[in-house]
Design goal:
Helix 7 runs antiparallel to helix 8, helix 11 packs antiparallel against helix 16 and helix 15 runs antiparallel to helix 16. The chain is mainly alpha-helical. The chain starts with a strand and ends with a helix. It contains 16 helices and three strands.
Length: 404
């Protein structure tokens, strides 16, 4: 859920923006943790699925554009270019109008004396809590250029992981769409033309052909109803997936269904561990690190679990014992590595090792599944297409035999 807030900084400056949290109390805690005095806090109006679709295609900043911006800013800062000059330069050369407007606002805020982290926080639709938290820790240590370099590396790794996960799904989806198109052409255009011929000739039809003719006549007769029904189901499903329950179910299936689990579980753990390493390296305390990981997680199930883990650690429980409560989402290997890291006082390095290990596992799983799924799908779709054509060609062959 998103909440609009109005707050004051310790210096007495007004600040408005949007914060994402599970409830109003959590939103207030996040703002308080950022050293803000909350004046007003209310739930933001929920955008409809149509508004979200329009924003997704026309009013958003792509991850690839954010990767480029972060890398360019890191390079400029490492070259000792002042922050406000770097922001102005990137604003002038950024082609994306949404990002361009956001950078102009950030530049004006920084030029007016507002810290970079607070200026970034005022653009929550573009920059995550993770991004603003890292910039805040960098400002405290006076090492912004180095941290921006780490951030650029981190965002690039995050983007690469997401692209790998998506690429594993592209080929099956394309094959499914092609098969659906071929099936619809046969059912709507071909079979209605030849079905009456078989009936008049009295040819004995195979069972599969009879089923196809039945489906075809039903589709041709009731196609307006079917279109409206399919559109209604799509709209209801799209609306349901926007609800907390729908997002939770979708994310739950990602990390529990056998094939999807092999891709999304190691990818999710890699992202959490990599982000955790970055935050701990930036000097963020463990409890706040876990809360930020929860707030920035794109998986609703892990978001809820991480919030619970943050509460456990806040109450004195170790991170490893809290993670052990969720063996389906944090395998025993993760828990054991955290135990060792806690004992050695090297939790930061442990997160990096977990990220490295599961990053390699994610790569291997994606490559193996892609290599395995391609021949399986080709054979499966080939069999189905063969049955479709056989259901048409066999009666034609029988019909030709009766003519001769």
């Amino acid at each position: 859920m998103k909440f609009k807030y109005q707050a004051k900084t310790r210096e007495g400056e007004n600040q408005v923006g949007v914060v994402e949290a599970t409830d109003k109390e959590m939103a207030a805690n996040i703002l308080t943790g950022h050293n803000l005095f909350v004046i007003g806090l209310e739930e933001a109006g929920k955008a409809s699925w149509l508004e979200k679709t329009v924003n997704y295609f026309f009013n958003r900043v792509k991850e690839s554009e954010l990767v480029i911006f972060t890398r360019q800013l890191a390079i400029l800062l490492e070259a000792r270019v002042p922050l406000n000059t770097a922001l102005k330069t990137l604003h002038e050369q950024t082609p994306n109008l949404v990002l361009k407007e956001a950078l102009l606002q950030i530049f004006e805020d920084v030029d007016a004396g507002l810290p970079f982290s607070q200026a970034v926080e005022r653009q929550p639709e573009i920059f995550s809590t993770f991004f603003s938290s890292m910039t805040r820790s960098a400002e405290v240590t006076g090492n912004l250029e180095s941290v921006m370099g780490f951030l650029a590396d981190h965002i690039e790794r995050e983007y690469a992981l997401k692209q790998k996960a998506k690429s594993a799904m592209i080929y099956p989806i394309i094959l499914f769409i092609l098969f659906s198109v071929v099936s619809m052409i046969l059912v709507i255009f071909v079979i209605p033309q030849i079905g009456p011929i078989f009936s008049e000739a009295g040819v004995s039809l195979p069972l599969f052909t009879m089923i196809l003719i039945g489906i075809s006549s039903f589709t041709v007769q009731w196609w307006p109803v079917l279109i409206f029904a399919a559109l209604g189901i799509f709209l209801m499903l799209a609306d349901y997936l926007q609800t907390p329950e729908g997002r939770s179910l979708k994310d739950q299936l990602k990390v529990t269904l056998p094939i999807f689990k092999r891709i999304f579980l190691p990818v999710t753990i890699t992202r959490i561990a990599n982000s955790g390493y970055m935050l701990l390296k930036g000097g963020i305390p463990v409890v706040q690190t876990i809360e930020i990981l929860a707030d920035t997680s794109d998986n609703a199930v892990y978001k809820e679990i991480l919030h619970k883990m943050a509460d456990d650690v806040r109450q004195g429980e170790t991170l490893s014992s809290s993670a052990a409560k969720y063996p389906e989402y944090f395998p025993s290997l993760v828990t054991q590595m955290i135990i060792v890291g806690e004992a050695a006082g090297q939790l930061e390095q442990t997160f990096m090792r977990i990220s490295t290990f599961y990053g390699r596992e994610a790569d291997a799983s994606i490559n193996n599944i892609v290599e395995l799924i391609q021949p399986v799908l080709i054979v499966g779709v080939g069999i189905l297409v063969g049955l479709l054509f056989a259901s048409i060609l066999m009666p034609i062959y029988q019909l030709m035999g009766t003519i001769h």
